Amino acid sequence: MLSCTPTIKPQFQKGVQDALLIRDQSLPPDSILSPPPPAELLDVTGIPRSCGLLTDWELEITEKYDATALVQGLAAQKFTAVAVLNAFRKRASIAQQLTNCITELLPEALEQAKAADDYIRKTGNTLGPLHGLPISLKEQIAVANHPTNAGFVAWVDHIVQRDANLVASLRSLGAIPFTRTNQPQSFMQLETSNNIYGVTVHPMNRSLTAGGSSGGETALMVLGGTPLGFGGDIGGSIRGPAALSGLWGFKPSVGRYSGAGVVVPWPGCDSISGTLGPFARSLRDIDLVQRAYSESRPWAEDPSLVPYPVAIHHAPAWNRPLRVGIMVNDGLFNPLPPVQLVLQDVTKKLEASPLIQVRPFEPLDHERAWQVISANYFEDGGAKIEEICAESGEELRPLTAWMIEECRKNEALVHQTIQGRKAARDEFRALYSAHWNAAGVDVVIAPVAPSTAPPPDTSRYWPYSAVWNLLDYPSIAFPASDMIGGYSKDLKGIPYNPKTAAETYAYSHYDPETAQHMPIGLQIIAKKWQDSECLAAAQVIERALKG
Amino acid sequence: MLSCTPTIKPQFQKGVQDALLIRDQSLPPDSILSPPPPAELLDVTGIPRSCGLLTDWELEITEKYDATALVQGLAAQKFTAVAVLNAFRKRASIAQQLTNCITELLPEALEQAKAADDYIRKTGNTLGPLHGLPISLKEQIAVANHPTNAGFVAWVDHIVQRDANLVASLRSLGAIPFTRTNQPQSFMQLETSNNIYGVTVHPMNRSLTAGGSSGGETALMVLGGTPLGFGGDIGGSIRGPAALSGLWGFKPSVGRYSGAGVVVPWPGCDSISGTLGPFARSLRDIDLVQRAYSESRPWAEDPSLVPYPVAIHHAPAWNRPLRVGIMVNDGLFNPLPPVQLVLQDVTKKLEASPLIQVRPFEPLDHERAWQVISANYFEDGGAKIEEICAESGEELRPLTAWMIEECRKNEALVHQTIQGRKAARDEFRALYSAHWNAAGVDVVIAPVAPSTAPPPDTSRYWPYSAVWNLLDYPSIAFPASDMIGGYSKDLKGIPYNPKTAAETYAYSHYDPETAQHMPIGLQIIAKKWQDSECLAAAQVIERALKG
């Protein structure tokens, strides 16, 4: 987890040390693991319970209550916001020591929790539908008066004056932003590694990546360190880590969540836009936050948003079986055995439901899709990332360098101008829309990633998630393997014959024994703007799988 | 009205001659003015009635019925689609001979009208909510199997295979696209002049421009040659000619009307996007077409659209007086006397209404707004326009050349990269949204143009209309001077002291005696995506003005 690379210029080294100090000093003294578990202990999910630092009540609150149950209890004054916050602060601190997942606990959260408690005690009313709920935020989502570095050493001490719009909305709903989570350098990685805070590892196996770019969020949530969190997704950065961690992660259409105040290297770069979105331990929590956020009318403050609410009850009734397309592979990369197996078992369960009509869904030229989206990510060919890194002397992380190279290669392939690359994007979107309509499906279930969590610095296959960013189709990752009771077979018994360089590369990092203990999620995709329909379909599918 | 410039390369001259032949041969033989009125006759609005070519029934149908009354009559089988179509074909032909407003009558419309009549006769049902309604279309909106040149000589014989999505939607609603209307070279003009068909002039004074870029539509409609039409607006091209002609013209938010199949010089150029929108002789006609188009669910076919309907009844009730901001000038250019006078008189009438609360609205740095939008129009600095013109040897029209120069100047001023110019755009949008919210208004009424229709080749002031394209706020032009019974004073009695170069230039082309006979429209602007609210506010304002 060493963070400071030796190349960092002296004038930036102090900033990095200060950032680490801010983080470490923010951890409650009564939450320090002493001694920490040995590095050889890979699965640390039992530590919060076994370490003895959390009371039974704290264990109960952080493990047995989802966000919906928490806001119900807080509104009923069964427990106080301060008590809930302190439980999550301690547990987040433990998670940090185990996986390096947070960048700081926010000290002001304590005052806010006290104010929430005072308010409800005096008035009998909640501050809003998320009254007293602790919420975690990916680091780039600015919090007023805190440095926000977006994973860049050069920005390590850049203090932001105003809350990001999302943070202000969450506060207005009564929620309490309480911790910020790690993200990668440049955020253009499906992992979580930077030269300030280092690498975030997977709590179920610390030799593996937590995924990314919102991997700090998921490592924290898997360890019970947050009831609800927010990340960002421009190519899979919410759905990827959610799928590798057995969590729900929702990537809405761009134009639903305000990105105002989120620190990015390239304002104005919108050939492909990312979006914020929530992580949760249950679908009802995703719906909770959607309903609440819609109530806050974020579009009044951010003119880039559409003024329409998103939540399950806003979806029109189907009045017939849900037509679910199953995309077993993307025509380029045959998923590794765990993904194949889970998708097969999920399909069988769905086929048994009278509420669902399963049909195959064929991908439409995802090779072209990847070329087009990667050619459109950087309008400056990645120059700004290199420039920001050069400013501090920090090295490009391996996956940052790989991504810049990949994008440049595809820029040259697709078109020499930004306008021409956008025309290719629009053309592909129109073709895919017609293809989807012809397939006659309401939603599609597909892999998010081709495998369970791989070792760090090897996540080089984006198309399963990124195609839906190119199309800007809403998509929700769901904990598929957990919902069907885990793998129905020994993965060692399932053969796999890699045929392409990408398959061979991923297979070389695949170990069936390791994978057997790791979850795999899938995603449910709906057409553009059908965010409510995506969530409503997820509810139907969840019932069929748990049924 | 001479079109062919001498510089056009020989191999393109035949194409131009053919285009003119197609147009002229499409005119019904019984609609030819012989002799045409003398060029010195400036106001030709009386000619359709006086020329003797139209029967009393045809005069009645084309003058006294708006689109709503026409579809009611067609649905009730009070008249046939063929009879209605023939009336408008003849009148459009007369309008063409008077103002040079169309590029062709579509011969296939006759078959479609017959089919509509057969259908309703046999089934008793309409083909849809626009059953049998003739509709005119700006030339760039592609019609299958016809050349679509978008005002460029080089494209004069480019045949398009498929209807634009809008055309397909209109057909599916029962409407009958029957004529195509003139537009300028490059469509980046607030007038209507190109080197194929020439210049479209104003039917109320043929020494003046009809406005543009959708000026073919408005010249045609003023002469009763179409009951409903469609144009496009990226800087005022719907609202401008509507305001100069006493018509309604609606520029919705981008993402409401499908632009798929509209021929433009630069696919992929979307730093600033234009949109299609309707022209009508009444607000209820605008609402008619909005309701019908929403019913056609255009978003199912075009993934760039939001899946939400737009019409008056979709606006939420205000349950309080409508808060109308009045913007008397943009802080840069004091409107000429006719505009000042109409805005004052409109304001007085609105102040007398108990349903309206009038308040001042101050513009926020429209100088910057113009810099930012013009810097963002061309992602290639206008190179593609020059290239297409060079291909055929045609000259840049004066206003095309002026616009390219203006955009290049402001590109240099705003930022050297496309990304940086878009960042400036986004920053301005956020500032204006906050400014609007702080002003506490539901809608704003403002000038569309600083004067009544000016002489050709002098329309060089875009900000009154273009600022709302930068912000992408929906806006509807309404026939303000007509609705309040014309000018309440002799314009000669109103002094004007030009202070800036732009004011001096416009004032040098201003003649109060000429202006006294020309209408002036204003626009009602709502915040982004509040398209239904914009129309609902227009209804409240219309009632207040008509008293």
From TrEMBL, chains A, B:
Gene3D superfamilies: Amidase signature (AS) domain. Coiled coil: none annotated. Pfam families: Amidase. InterPro entries: Amidase_dom (IPR023631), AS_sf (IPR036928). Signal peptide: none annotated. PANTHER family: AMIDASE C550.07-RELATED, AMIDASE-RELATED-RELATED. Belongs to the amidase family. This is Amidase domain-containing protein. It comes from Phialemonium thermophilum.
